[in-house]
Structure prediction request, 727 residues.
Amino acid sequence: MSPTSTSATRRATPGTAEPVTAATDVVVVGAGAAGAALSWRLRTAGLSVVCLERGYWSVPADAPQNQPDWEGQRLRSRSPNPNVRCSPEDYPVLADTSPIQPQMFNGVGGSTVLWSAHAPRFRPSDFKVRSLDGVGNDWPIDYWDLAPYYEMNDRISGISGLAGDPGNPPRTPRTTPPVPLGPGGHKLADAFEQLGWHWWPTDGQVLTRDVGHRQACNGCGPCELACPRQARSSADITYWPLAVEAGVRLVTGATVVGVLFDAPDRTSGVRWLDDDGVEHRTEAGTVVLAGNGIGTPRLLLTGGGSTHPDGIANSSGLVGVGLMLHPIAAATGVFAEPLAAWSGNSAFCLLSQEFYETDSARDFVRGYEMQVMRGQGPLITALGAFTLDIPWGSGHHARFDELFGRVASVAISCEDLPDPANRIVIDDTARDRHGIPAARMVYRPDGNSRRMIRHGLAAARRALETAGAVQVLENPLLDQTGFHLMGTARMGNDPTTSVVDADCRTHDVPNLMVVDGSVFASSAAANPTPTIQALALRAADRLIGEPGSVPT
Amino acid sequence: MTAVARLDLLAQVLLPGDGDWPAAGELRLGAAMLDIASRHRGNKDALDAYAGGLGAKIFDDDGDDEARHDAVAHLEHNEPAVFGLLRALAYEAYYAHPRVQDVLAAHTGRRPGPAQPAGYPQVFALDRAPDLSGVRARGLVWRDDGTETAATVRAAQEQDPMHEWTEEEIWSWRR
Prediction:
């Protein structure tokens, strides 16, 4: 029996009507971006894989954009904030201790179901921030280890863009051409050019040509609601069909509540509850956690029972510690002429990484990227979007006319340095539907981030004014932006200062792995999903043994 | 006064109309707001609070426009969460109304209705290829991480910026 839900339409995975409890080589917890990629990769190498997902399938054809209340659904059932969405499969994430609110989706495809599909890669320096700049943590791997897996992920997911960006190492030709810059994007591109700043059409997992059964983007706007044309990639339409066809057993409505052990340093599987609260056990040679930067530490801290009162794989004391987000500010330029800014994918069209790297002349270390975004639909515009100030009452309509369709925004996405005070902790003042305590997000941006934001807003204003904006509106910290959840089970070589090793195995329990954003040793300033998926693919290869040739 | 009538009044205060923008009061949005609220528990709770007393406190039958405006401003100041939800309900009902969609289309050229299935493909049809010659001419700007691979790749990229890299070539970069 499935629970009533206000969320996306659901269905069970074909061929998995019965709960899977038989022993398997690998059990994966979470069917999001990382769990999908790793499951597919392991299964194609011949391992038996069971994936347990607390949520359900979404059906692309049921996307809000086809419905009259398409914008309003973002405020309710399609909100990326689980505390707003309140679907039965969600767990509470208490966040009155953070100015940035949690954003995620629990279901097949994970948060890629509600993402905007902006897909830049990390840069080589992002993996060596301690060596190069004396801050944060180096990764035990480098960009060059991941580069082939970025490529593999691009090929499976499908990506639009343009190879040849001088701001990044080379990559293969993209699946389809980039999304159109549109009138606002061209204005900003011209401005960046006048200023002599780096810019480039953005890599995005939004296809601009028909590819197989996936239709080309038709510019409807809000990718983050879903994509009925399947132009926008999400793990449920890219990796999962391949993985299920290959034989991965994906079980929905399966909430993992505990990790089993047959020795202090050896897991034997997981314990999980179905929709009716009935307990099941799945035995496995390897357990892989892929529950995102909040869900994974929550399970590690609650799932060990009396044998692990301080948490699983937590001898370092770092599980949940060092949460990194991307503090994001935005500047919106208002233009005198119409830009049809409601058309085209709203979240990105071009990217400037002019201020991405450390410059000793600035008052902050590391840097930020500037992501050019379009406008929103009428309802979100009226409600203020990122920065707009539209009064209610007699001034509403005139101000709406000035703004709707006439804006372009620059989002400033800042690298976040790890701060041990920023963390995920367990808070039993709230519980999920199975009685498991909530996670609490304790977070504040540090002084480095605040100085970076100040610099970024000034740079964005300069770009927008150069582009011809007649007014620039600023928001120094967007609150509904806690979607990049990183660093809460950090990767490193030293078991006393990290939770997992270079291959994503926990130091304390080698057959227990973590493959989501939790393992990031640094946050970079770029969106993390391609890096999460590349890491998961690499972790799969390290588990099965290195392939000797380019994998298919 | 019924809950629907109170919502009609609230919407009218928020969206009084201007030029060809219709006044919310003409559109009788209260019932639509109730319908929208019924789709989500959080909205329903706020609306119940409003209908159960809050609305009666700020709108009475004898209130004039100025008093109603002041009452809504008071609600915004003292109950920002409830006000935010009620405003979102009113705006959603208003901007989804066919008459409002027609005005929006007349003002902007935006096709009325849901974003799909038609989309807004003109953003593709009217676009032009970006001129990247300037940014290319400024050369490589990614930072060397000090590895031998970085030096090798940078040299190759500088020598032939237009080279079409293959997955096989990139696979060879691994340590």
Summary: Chain A has a mean pLDDT of 94. Residues 447-466 of chain A form the longest helix (20 residues). Chain A touches chain B through 88 residues (CB under 8 Å). The two ends of chain A are 39 Å apart (CA to CA).
